[in-house]
What does this fold into?
Amino acid sequence: MVKPYPKPGEAGGILIRSVLGLCKSRAFPTPIQGSVLIAVSGGVDSMVLAHLLGKYGRNLIEPGRIALLHFDHGWRPESAQAEKDAVSFLASSLGLSFLHRKLNPPSLHAKSENWEEDARLKRLEAYDELAGPGKKHRFVLTAHHQDDVAETVLWRFLRGEFSEGDVGIKFLDYQCLRPFLEVSKEVILRYAKEEGVPYFEDASNFDVGRFRAWARHEVLPLLEKAYPSVRKTLAAYAHHRFGSDRSVGGAESSPEIANLLQAVVGGPLNRAQRSALAKMVQESPVGGILSLPGGVQLKRLKSGWLIEDSTEANQA
It folds into this structure.
């Protein structure tokens, strides 16, 4: 006898509908074909995402196609093993695969002066290695949610960062997929309680000397007293500025151009090249040129795009 597929509770139902609704609104096809990684730190957001999709998410991705990916950043050795064990246990309990990566902690030669930014860059390198077109895993799913979008908008506003393509957080950014962008933190916490999902609290999340903690625990609660929907409003503003996310990002901005360029240069474009392509598609004037390996150039014309071999063009 086939075991009936489980149905989520109230909070779980809200989350599943939100995830599928977001995919539909962004014209993202479901269910996902191929395997995916879910980046899971051990915190409540990512543990809930993993539990939700592993137990109730077959309309988005079959559980057999999911692997949980955990990073040890090397900066909290006292809790790293416990968090790794918790994520590994969650994967085992749901019948999911488990991957673990240990990252070198920041040093004097860190790629960024900010430890959190350095860790983010190292995670992106790992994502590039593990997932993407032609890789074993097609996407990496992360648990960024509506409150994260609100904090990001506030942060960029206070810094005076008003560029059209950098307002909030993208739904799809190269191989990174963020299905919780229209989900509030409150619903995530309700689901964790509803399902008994264990999670860890990072002490830095309460350090108001850091912007996100300050915004989360002091600024936004103060604004909510006068404007109860401020988080949702900021997130909606980001979506309005981003449109459907289809005007920015690597493969989304012009999949035909990206795929053709990859065929011409004989391999996948790296993250820097995809970023340059996205910027060129969005901003480049007529005559703009993007140079790629092997002497290949992409040139913007009035009527479209020209891909040519720059060595042959120079000889001519």
